[in-house]
Amino acid sequence: MIKTWLFKSHKQKNTRFLTAPAVFVITIISIFISLLGNSVFSKENILSDEAIPTQSYTHYAGFYSFQLPSMFNLSPGSILWLNGSDMSTIEPRQQYRPAFLQLIKRKEKELKETQPLDTKDSPYLKNVYHSQGDVEGVIFERMEEIDTHDVARMLEAYKWERNTTFKVMFKARDASASRYDSVRQTSKYVYMTNIGEKMSAMKKLLSNISFREISHPPENGKFAFTFGQVDPVLLGEHRFVVKYNNEKGVAFTIVTTNETGAVEDVLTQDPRVMEGKNGTTLAKKTEKINGINYSTWLVKTNEEKYSIPYEAYNFTLTTRDDGNTTRSAIELNMKYSTLDETAENGMSEEELITLWHQVIFTLRYQSELAERLHNE
After folding, report:
1. What is the pTM of this model?
2. Maximum CA pair distance of the chain?
3. Residue 352 burial (10 A CB sphere; 0-12, 13-18, 19+)
4. Could you say which of 132, 334, 336, 362 is the most buried, measured as most Cβ atoms within 10 Å of its Cβ?
5. What are the contacts of 124-133 at 24+ separation with CB within 8 A?
């Protein structure tokens, strides 16, 4: 814009008075100003481009999608809790079929060799149910713990599909043994039997879980989790947690849930809690992203470890309580510290803020999926 304006101005006002040397001088000055402008105003962009590759991939978490730069990798340990207070879980992991078959063989041997503390509860492993048909997997029915009576059961299932193992855990109870007759009526909740009901629900869930490429959207309105997808109707009250990090030490953690009040609006938090003793708020506001209002709070703290001072960044985004009961909540958190980073390999505050906005502004909510779940 500076270069264009200079030439336009002189052409309009002084064209007939310009000599060749004057034109040469003006040209040199214009080029210099242009280069100076580029060096000043593009420095931040150059830094950002070096730290943040332009290539990004879309990821999916429940009913949300977001984009992360290609430098981010999935961290192990993502987990989907379901069935509310039952604390049932789905844990996915990538695994080749030979390793899966070896896992099943070793697990069965381990469970058969495990002995409860009270011999009356033996055996620890009650039953083994192998899948039939196209589904490849197994369900182990075992005691929940070696030191609790065998009325408390655990259904531990493993399903394999396209180099991915899905581990599913359901708690259940079986008080059908005669030794529980005297206490069954006085403690109905503790000494109840729902093993058949839980087994049916487990099998239905296993048959519905299917593999999903990490960057592919879920099919037919299903709930997306790491390497998988499932009909959300089968989840009940649920919470999904997944984490990504990069080689520079930046970590993104995403939590999405339909539990009422499980994700609190970050702007309602106490500043003393958010900032800590040595913290400073960089930004604190409401962001409207793709039609939905979110709360964001960006904090920087000065820390010290082993007498080494360093800076830590904690950026948080949460959904706002706007009375929409059909929308799943989300909390997106980005953390970074300079403790283990060299100046050459680290990221500046400006780069972190740029990265943060680059990610959160891609956040989208698949409302039609949630509405289907709510209506059913």
Report:
1. 0.83
2. 113
3. buried
4. 336
5. 126/150, 126/153, 126/174, 129/199, 131/159, 131/206
